[in-house]
Amino acid sequence: MSWKPLDVFSKIFSHEALESYLPKIQMVIQDTLRAWSSNPDSINVYHEAQKLTFRMAIRVLLGFRIPDEELGQLFEVYQQFVENVFSLPVDLPFSGYRKGIRAREALQKGLEKAIREKLQNTQGKDYSDALDILIESGKEHGKELTMQELKDGTLELIFAAYATTASASTSLIMQLLKHPAVLEKLREELRSKGILHNGCLCEGSLQLDTINGLRYLDCVIKEVLRLFTPISGGYRTVLQTFELDGFQIPKGWSVMYSIRDTHDTAPVFKDVDVFDPDRFGQDRTEDRDGRFHYLPFGGGVRTCLGKHLAKLFLKALAIELASMSRFELATRTFPRITLVPVVHPVDGLKVKFFGLDSNQNEILTETEAMLGATV
């Protein structure tokens, strides 16, 4: 889809677009946390976060009205596609490459069905989603998108919203578990801004400008992304020969920059291994000392275009976690972190969630209440 100008993405992730996505993002997160809290067993946070970000992409970014059962099946197919997308190109019956091809074919078939239903069903729409903007942009440039281009564009948007956001969401939950004082400070900020009252979110309080004004919440998300950047780095092509530390890098070479190593070695960060959201506070300047010490979304003209959506999603998740859930680690110790293919706990992070009432008291399920009454 090389015809797409950058202004299409600027529309998809503009302030106005994010504002229209926010209520839908909030609903998806709330539904998910209610499901987690109603589960009598612990959940695998990383796996469930993948489901959550996939659902967000399908329901919010693309505006597809796929029934939950079909959505679950589509998620399983998508996971199989992602797991095999980087397989060696060995076309044997049981190879990962062949599995990836079959998954992609099944995925595109499901997406085509959803796109056709969306194009035929335009009533009851109260906002323009990313796919709407993509279609309209094509028309503005005198190009009616083919079904294959729509499927490719849809797949790009899902891919962009899926793995890295699920990784960061898992890291956020782990750090809130490890640092209850951070969670309480976050709740205090929500109370002071009139967002959280008597343990529940005030109706209509979550506006984009309000969220952007939550300074401590912004510090928490920044610190999660500093310490647990989902991807290790990025590739670039050298446009002009230059010298770095006495070495000449010729024009045309491919180079890789490491986000993780940059964060680990940047001299501006004190106690780099410590989770400390206050390092990004107004009293300290660790994120403002130098241009390229902090780059969780890359840097320069090719910085991640979806970074504002990702940060909004993480902030909305943190707010909902602070207001409607109590959660605790279901294992004796915190799991080891692996960096491949993205940062995530080796066991997925096993956590038990409990629903809360408006006074932050645990909500017992009907079975638990009956058992409690007989003791």
UniProtKB/TrEMBL annotation:
The keyword Electron transport does not apply. It holds the Pfam family p450. Its main location: endoplasmic reticulum. Keywords: Endoplasmic reticulum, Heme, Iron, Lipid metabolism, Membrane, Metal-binding, Microsome, Monooxygenase, Oxidoreductase. Belongs to the cytochrome P450 family. It is found in: Endoplasmic reticulum membrane; Microsome membrane. This is Cytochrome P450 26B1. It catalyses: all-trans-retinoate + reduced [NADPH--hemoprotein reductase] + O2 = all-trans-18-hydroxyretinoate + oxidized [NADPH--hemoprotein reductase] + H2O + H(+); all-trans-retinoate + reduced [NADPH--hemoprotein reductase] + O2 = all-trans-4-hydroxyretinoate + oxidized [NADPH--hemoprotein reductase] + H2O + H(+). It is a peripheral membrane protein. InterPro entries: Cyt_P450, Cyt_P450_CS, Cyt_P450_E_grp-IV, Cyt_P450_sf. Its cofactor is heme.
